[in-house]
Write a structure and sequence with these properties.
The complex is a heterodimer of chains A (250) and B (92). Chain A contains eight helices and nine strands. Chain A has a single domain, classed as Alpha-Beta Complex (Spore Coat Polysaccharide Biosynthesis Protein SpsA, Chain A), CATH 3.90.550. In chain A, 43% of the residues lie in helices and 17% in strands. The radius of gyration of chain A is 17 Å and the shape is globular. Chain B is mostly helical and 92 residues long. Chain B folds into two domains: 39 residues; 52 residues. Chain B contains four helices and no strands. In chain B, helix 1 runs antiparallel to helix 2. The longest helix of chain B is centred in the middle third of the chain and has 22 residues. Chain B starts with a helix and ends in a 5-residue tail after the last helix. The chains are: A alpha/beta (250), B mainly alpha (92). At the A-B interface, helix 1, helix 2, strand 6, helix 5 and strand 9 of A face helix 1, helix 3 and helix 4 of B. Chain B: Component of the dolichol-phosphate mannose (DPM) synthase complex. Chain B: It is found in: Endoplasmic reticulum membrane. Chain B: It is a multi-pass membrane protein. Chain B: Pathway: Protein modification; protein glycosylation.
């Protein structure tokens, strides 16, 4: 795969990509994810901006974000902090309000989603004019790193059950590395009420309901390098509840 | 129509068809062999679906890609990024 494009960077039909990065205690990871985003957007030549939505992290994430803004410029790094943790859905609404791009990437800031896949998302979106492109761990070269057998079984089992019950037309429902057309994300976020894992699932299920077209890019998911990754009983219970709610209401 | 309703409709149609043949509800005078085959059918379907599910999930767990290469690449890029960011004046 060629990492560098031969075509000139300007143009691309005037498309601009806004990356929404909701953060909470990501002081270690934020500089790294921003560095990688700048690297891959820079190499591919697409117009972009990174919007950091920090929910009042006590570890000083915002202060690090300010330093990054000084380094990379206020046109590339936008800071749109909020006073306290208010949930993913409202973070996206908050971010979209301040985004100037006509396309929006959402991804985790904890380095589990690698920006190297961004050019593939964009290429696939352009090829078929998809309304949204979703990263998938379950197809093609996609996969995970850092998961034990138990985690893999829960993940595959939950995914199978969801596929059977909801037939959502996408293979990775709980993943959160996605590219949306701006107005598609706006209309979906308005409708989604779930929290946590189920929020991403509801976004895809509602997208199918509204007949949006969905493309998929296989991604490698490298589980949190810094910080704790959790999948306990509580997560599983809330996942099942969310699944059944969607089953009964969509 | 919600997925729940779709499922209920599907299950009802199958159950009605099964009951018609198994208990000859419409007095169709079907041969006995039909009835004998139809009678345990729901259990067979359930068991085969269970087997299919287990096999599918098992196969997918076994073939779940371990992205060792991606993890290594990331670690190297983290080193590179930290060095570069330090040069650019970032204080961690």
């Amino acid at each position: 795969m060629s990492s560098r494009k031969t075509s000139p960077p300007s143009g691309h039909g005037g498309d601009k990509y806004s990356v929404l990065l909701p953060t909470y205690n990501e002081r270690e990871n934020l500089p790294l994810i921003v560095w990688l985003l700048v690297k891959y957007f820079g190499e591919s030549g697409y117009d972009y901006e990174i919007i950091v939505i920090d929910d009042g992290s006590p570890d000083g994430t915002l202060e690090v974000a300010q330093q990054l803004q000084n380094i990379y410029g206020e046109d590339k790094i936008l800071l749109r902090p909020r006073a306290k943790k208010l949930g993913l859905g409202t973070a996206y609404i908050h971010g979209i309000k301040h985004a100037s791009g006509n396309f929006i990437f959402i991804m985790d800031a904890d380095l589990s989603h690698h920006p190297k896949f961004i050019p593939e998302f964009i290429r696939l979106q352009k090829e078929e004019d998809f309304d949204l492109v979703s990263g998938t761990r379950y197809k093609g070269d996609g996969g995970v790193y850092g998961w034990d057998l138990r985690r893999k079984m829960i993940s595959r089992g939950a995914n199978f059950l969801t596929q059977v019950l909801l037939r959502p037309g996408a293979s990775d429902l709980t993943g959160s590395f996605r590219l949306y057309k701006r107005q598609v994300l706006e209309s979906l976020v308005e409708r989604c009420v779930s929290k946590g894992y189920v929020f991403q699932m509801e976004m895809i299920v509602r997208a199918r309901q509204l007949h949006y077209s969905i493309g998929e890019v296989p991604i490698s998911f490298v589980d949190r390098v810094y910080g704790e990754s959790k999948l306990g009983g509580n997560e599983i219970v809330s996942f099942v509840k969310g699944l059944l709610t969607l089953f009964a209401t969509t | 129509m919600t997925k729940l309703v779709e499922w209920l409709v599907g299950v009802t149609v199958v159950l009605v068809g099964w009951a018609v043949v198994s208990f000859d509800l419409l007095d169709l005078r079907l041969p006995d062999t039909y009835r004998e085959v139809a009678w345990p059918m729901p259990l067979y379907l359930l068991v085969s679906f269970g087997c299919y599910s287990l096999a599918t999930v098992g196969y997918r767990v076994a073939t779940f890609n371990d992205c060792e290469e991606a993890a290594r690449e990331l670690q190297e890029q983290i080193k590179e990024a930290k060095e570069d960011l330090r040069k650019k004046g970032l204080k961690m």
